[in-house]
Design goal:
This protein is an alpha+beta fold and 488 residues long. It has 21 helices and 17 strands. Helix 2 runs antiparallel to helix 3, helix 3 crosses helix 8 and helix 10 crosses helix 12.
Amino acid sequence: LERHYTAGGFTHTFRRPGYEWDVGIHYIGGVNHPKALGRRLFDFITDGELHWADMGEVYDRIILGDNAYDYVKGLEGFRAKMHEYFPSDKDAIDAYLEKVLSTAKKTSMFFAEKAVPPFVSTLFGGAMRRPVLKDATRTTREVLEEITQNQELIGVLTGQFGDYGLVPAESSFLMHSMVFTHYLRGAGYPVGGSSRIAATILPVIEASGGEVLTNAEVSEIVVEKGQAVGVRMPDGRVLRAPIVVSNAGVLNTFERLVPDDVAREVGYANKARQMVGNSIAHLSLYVGLKGTTEELELEKTNLWIYRDHRHEENFAAFQRDINAPLPVVYLSFPSAKDPDFDHRFPGHSTIEAITLGPYAPFARWQETKWKKRGAEYDEQKASLSERLIEKIYRYAPATRGNVEIAELSTPLTTENFAAHQDGAIYGLSHGPSRFEARWLRPRTPLKGLYLTGSDVVTAGLVGALMGGMSCSSAILKGNVLGQVLKAN
């Protein structure tokens, strides 16, 4: 049951005449090789109908002030490139790579513990979680500063932190390690755009007897005699089911959908707010340009543009004052990544310019309606749009004079379309406390109610997919991931 007019959540796309943009999928790791885990899972849930375009040798470029650093695919390629940039820090770079790889390798049992039956968790859960907890409960900066004091190097090695939305001094080193290793073999982009993800999954659901309904908002999870027995729609209809699975996130589920008295008894909402908290919000400028990718000299590589290596200081300034310099601008070039784009939209190109920031400056317009928020709101959007587009002109100069559309989404847009409270792009925050939260798992204390999606495992498309695998395993009392990999 999907409240939006199209299925797919942050994998959906939207169009304007002559253009199309993805809203949340900019690149995916682990899909370029048919034997890679992510690729095997996507082949399974799409029956092999989802195809991927390789982004090439350089998938990310970290820009700190006037200096640029390429992330090249492959462990040894990455190592050699970093050695080239920082010849005096080869030992630190090698130690870093050893640390992130060893940390990421420990995750399988940690996440498997989330799906095992309660009695198994009671007996063996501690042992399953323990190997990874030491690094999961430390910050990225804490771990890296044990390896090196070269702050420029730390700024480069943490340059992808926008993928989970927490600066190095606040993020879990486990999350950092998983994101880095996720892209280490390169990145891919769905051929035909990110809407192909949902389009290729839906037929598999339907062929298995399922149904996906859009414009189908759930107003309440129905609870009878201490058990979830179905959902109520806004018109009062109740759809009954022996099992209810929520992909709305922990906070939405227990603050908006579960009856208040039951939610208080379960206590998940308080735990989520007090122990973990929401992730950061974002602003995204969707730009449509006349001219092909070749004519505008656009490339597939994502650009992470920072003022300098002082990530925490720069983000804190922007949190305090939205008129402060932008702490990061992420440039993505979907029309360059998607080999099918020119067939669908000949003679056009697209760019997305994204920054991460606070919800607070937009909160006063929370009760207004989309596209009807008033002149002051529009002025603030115009100012932010201008600042973002100047970054595009600087790093893709051939675009100047060719912009036909520039449309900005704010945290209120995220809240309006995705129902993410406070415009939180990544659901719950990915700090150390998230991974200490043993209660954060598919099976809830409310009988018949399960959680799935990114709040169960981690943010990102593959994180949400693994949340689904974990939830399926908990419901079916078996290793669904293992069964899928064995069959595929």
